[in-house]
């Protein structure tokens, strides 16, 4: 849902954190979830001179994330909660990978492109179906991450990013699976839950790469 973009951007920003250039990270230098290669392509597209990605502004990073990842996985048209689960997957592991896992879970043609067939299947889901797809998507994402050769280096951070601090789904946990399910439930209710993040842990980041995480410290309500 387009209206969820600001919240999704906040969560993705917290997971990605700031600048990281880990020698084992195949994505290379990354800041706010944007790799140097992606930043270079973005600047060329705009006809602007190339610059180091380190120090990229929050506003520019969010514009790139919306254009390069959220829009391309159809996050503006996916059900609430599922939109965030797919979007974070795309930022962390690529649009095609996230799209293919979504299509596999939905049981539609797997081609890596979120189009009318995929969106129609997602929007036919019941409320319970949305939660089940979120859970299956996150579990499939973890299975993919565990197969990567950098699992030994980044596995703990990836697990915390996707599944949170504790197994299962908790109201106050910080995993994508927790936030996505809670977002889906909040959207169905008569209130909107605003999640206030806690501190980001050091040493995680963008992935194929790595992952940063935060804790949800409290929730409050405001009129829908």
Automatic annotation (TrEMBL):
Residues 12-94 form the TtsA-like Glycoside hydrolase family domain. Residues 98-161 form the Peptidoglycan binding domain. The lineage of its organism: Bacteria, Pseudomonadati, Pseudomonadota, Alphaproteobacteria, Rhodobacterales. Signal peptide: none annotated. This is Uncharacterized protein. Pfam families: Glyco_hydro_108 (PF05838), PG_binding_3 (PF09374). InterPro entries: Lysozyme-like_dom_sf, Peptidoglycan-bd_3, TtsA-like_GH18_dom. SUPFAM superfamilies: Lysozyme-like. It comes from the Bacteria.
């Amino acid at each position: 849902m387009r209206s969820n973009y600001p919240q999704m951007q906040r969560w993705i920003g917290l997971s990605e954190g700031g600048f990281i250039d880990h020698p084992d990270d195949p994505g290379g230098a990354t800041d706010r979830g944007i790799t140097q290669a992606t930043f270079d392509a973005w600047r060329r597209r705009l006809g602007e001179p190339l610059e180091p990605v380190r120090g990229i502004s929050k506003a520019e990073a969010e514009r790139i994330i919306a254009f390069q990842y959220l829009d391309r996985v159809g996050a503006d048209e996916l059900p609430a909660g599922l939109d965030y689960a797919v979007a974070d997957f795309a930022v962390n592991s690529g649009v095609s990978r996230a799209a293919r896992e979504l299509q596999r879970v939905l049981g539609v043609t797997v081609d890596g492109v979120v189009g009318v067939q995929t969106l129609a299947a997602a929007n036919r889901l019941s409320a319970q179906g949305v939660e089940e797809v979120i859970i299956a998507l996150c579990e499939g994402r973890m299975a993919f991450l565990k197969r990567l050769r950098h699992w030994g280096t980044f596995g703990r951070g990836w697990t915390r990013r996707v599944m949170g601090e504790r197994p299962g789904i908790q109201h106050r946990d910080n995993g994508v699976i927790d936030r996505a399910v809670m977002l889906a439930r909040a959207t169905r209710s008569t209130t909107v839950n605003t999640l206030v993040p806690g501190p980001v842990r050091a040493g995680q980041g963008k992935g194929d790469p790595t992952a940063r995480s935060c804790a949800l410290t409290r929730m409050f309500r405001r009129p829908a």
